[in-house]
Amino acid sequence: MEKSSQKGGANAIVTKVSFIAALAGLLFGLDIAYVNGSLELIVKTFHLTTSQSELIAEILLFGAFIGAVFSGWLSRQFGRKKVLLLASLIFALFTFLGVFAPSFTVLLVARFIIGLAVGIASFVAPLYLSEIAPFKIRGRLIALYQLMITIGILAMFLSNAALMHFGSWRLMMSVIAIPALVMFVGALFLPESPRWLVLVGRNEEAQKVLKRIRNSDEEVNFELGEIKETVKVKGGGWKLLTKPFFRKVLILGILLQALQQFSGMNAFMYYSGQVFKAAGFSSPAVATIVIGLVNMLTTLIAIKYVDKLGRKPILYAGLTILVVSCAVVGYIFKINPPGTEMTSVEQWLTLIFSLLFIFGFAVALGPIIWILCSEIFPLKGRDLGITITTATNWISNTIIGGYTLTWFIHLGVGGTFWMFGAVNLVGFLIIGFLTPETKNIPLEELEKNLENGVPLRKLGVRQIS
Ligand code: BGC
Q: Residue 288: how many CB atoms within 10 A of its CB?
């Protein structure tokens, strides 16, 4: 589909529209990072136990899981724009409910419903972006969406640290309402996705939208023709699950998303405050900000190199860094059980290897797993495949959010990081034996290879017929 006849890059309206849709990524980042820095204050207000405090992170992630499960259906039924609008409305309204929550239960309800919006947005925003974008920049947009998530995470870490001295988790949460309102107002003006319009037979409207977002009639007609062609490929639906070739690639997607989450990254995103406190840092918030900064800057590097170097070499390098840093951070905590004090060298090593961990994740598993999951499914099963793998991401994320503090208590911080290290070791097997290199190969060719029974690992290798 990647035809060169489409010469257009992004024009001003595409840039504006992409920015508004990408705000969903920012909100995703803000909401998941919120607990890091605010949790202790919430615990104090409502006198929570460890498992109750884990619930604050967990409930949003579980909501995201449910949201992701329904997002494919919602966006097909009502259109991408309406669903984005709905998500931004939920973000805005329920952030207010959270800010003014009179009890722990109301706070949990607000976080759960915001979670629904996070899950919906995590499916619809990249989908909308990829349908609005000209072909040439489509691939990069998924990585850009990831960048927005990391900007959201960093912004929340910064804002939580800046507002810390007010000692109010409500004030910290209210910050999220600002981009939520901007996105809601902006989303009112978004054009509907031309692909969805064609999908529901509103071809004339699709043409009108394309005229707004493309540079010439030639581009509009070419793209409209292409969309009509692809829409003819009827969705395979749940029946596809009976096809071994689809199941194979689905299992790969599920394994990749589970690997991304059980790598341990979100233990840092949610609980780095606790990790650095256990290491004896006097200002864990500063260390957390550095983590957010490294996460964001590294994502920029990933965007630059993922198409040049390929997915697999970067994944191997990232996993190596993850295994080594989990081993070192785990070891330092092992020889410093609770009650003992780390030397300053050990503290520095903890910080350095934690940052290396973030680097290893953000350069590889962070963006590349999302990219791979958007590439490996055949067209007719893309919606189903992405729905199931995105849901896997959120359910695994829920487990990390819900159990990390418990693991810290029962396995120790050291034991927990060794466990993550072991998962990352298994990651080598998943990448080595099951994952194709998808750099520089048209999606249609991957699809043909898959249906012809080519082993997963070799899907990206051109077959000579
Ligand atoms: C993951 C999130 C994670 C974020 C960190 C994303 O790719 O899916 O779970 O919090 O990266 O930047």
A: 29
